[in-house]
Specification:
Order of helices and strands: HEEHEEEEEEEHHHHHHEHEH
Mean pLDDT: 90
Distance between the termini: 19 Å
Radius of gyration: 20 Å
CATH topology of the largest domain: Cyclophilin
Oligomer: single chain
Strand order of the largest sheet: 3-11-1-2-10-7-9-5-4
Structural class: alpha+beta
Helix content: 25-40%
Number of strands: 11
Length: 290
């Protein structure tokens, strides 16, 4: 089935002469416009986004989740016409997409990636059929970057195993208190604080490797490196990065929803790839899918 989907995606791009032309997307908001392209290396996500845009699926939706210094998120059809401060669920088109992780396409500032449910409900890390986020992130020092590259999947697994031991009952008790009080950040801090102990107890290495590209990009352009390899990045904002900052900095209420609706529309047009690169000082990645 996945092969069939991928094959049909290839047919679409052959039809628009993918060697010479591409789609340029414009995301319009009251705070300004952003220009975006999608990657050929993630054909399932690209084909799906084109299809939804052609149908006008995204028009009149809002950026329903905004976290300054992290990302801005949209694509939930339940947000269309919703009252400010209302709670929004995990709305979508009724299907998910298979993940398309590309090692060299990372969560730099401006990266467009697919939202998804957490690993417990979604062990295959499938993408939402419509919800996406645009990375804001921050600029990192190399030390911060290396400290951030923890294999959290493995860390959580070993942590759960460790606190089952009688000698760590005090940690288990603390976990229950934090869960009851819904102190998510404090719980994560506690888990991270046990990293050295876990590495010693289980003789494991829980730091993920860094590429030269990651170091160069995250220490200059910025982004959210801890998301690499866990969410599918399928596009990039190539003009209007300052609009991401404007949207990310608006006042928010419960569930990180902007206090005032930020409505968007998305338009797309065919344009020569050379022209896109020239106009927006952008270079298409010359890499193969993993």
């Amino acid at each position: 089935m996945v092969w069939l989907i991928l094959f049909s995606g290839v047919l679409v791009f052959q039809g628009c002469d993918n060697k010479k032309q591409d789609y340029l997307f414009t995301i319009r908001t009251k705070l300004g416009d952003m220009k975006m392209v999608l990657y050929d290396q993630t054909p399932v996500h690209k084909k799906n986004f084109i299809k939804l845009t052609e149908k006008g699926f995204y028009d009149s939706l809002i950026f329903h989740r905004v976290i300054n210094g992290f990302m801005i998120q949209s694509g939930n059809p339940e947000s269309k016409g919703s009252m400010p401060n209302g709670r929004l669920g995990n709305g979508g088109p009724g299907y998910n997409l298979p993940s398309e992780f590309i090692t060299d396409i990372i969560h730099e500032k401006g990266a467009v990636a697919a939202a998804r449910q957490g690993d417990n409900q979604n062990p295959k890390k499938e993408s939402s059929g419509s919800q996406f986020y645009i990375v804001q992130g921050k600029i990192w020092t190399e030390k911060e970057l290396r400290d951030s590259r923890i294999n959290f999947d493995e860390l959580y697994k070993y942590f759960e195993n460790l606190i089952e031991r009688a000698s760590y009952k005090h940690v288990q008790d603390r976990v229950r208190v934090l869960q009851h009080e819904q102190k998510v950040e404090d719980l994560q801090d506690l888990i991270i604080s046990m990293k050295d102990t876990i590495e010693m107890e289980y003789d494991v290495e829980l730091d993920l490797p860094l590429t030269e590209q990651q170091i160069e990009t995250y220490t200059t352009v910025g982004g959210t490196p801890h998301l690499d390899g866990s969410y599918t990045v399928f596009g990039k904002v190539i003009d209007g990065l300052e609009i991401i900052d404007k949207i990310a900095s608006v006042p928010t209420g419960p569930n990180d929803r902007p206090a005032e609706n930020i409505i968007l529309t998305i338009e797309m047009e065919k344009m020569d790839r050379d022209r896109i690169e020239e106009l927006y000082d952008f270079q298409y990645p010359d890499i193969s899918a993993d």
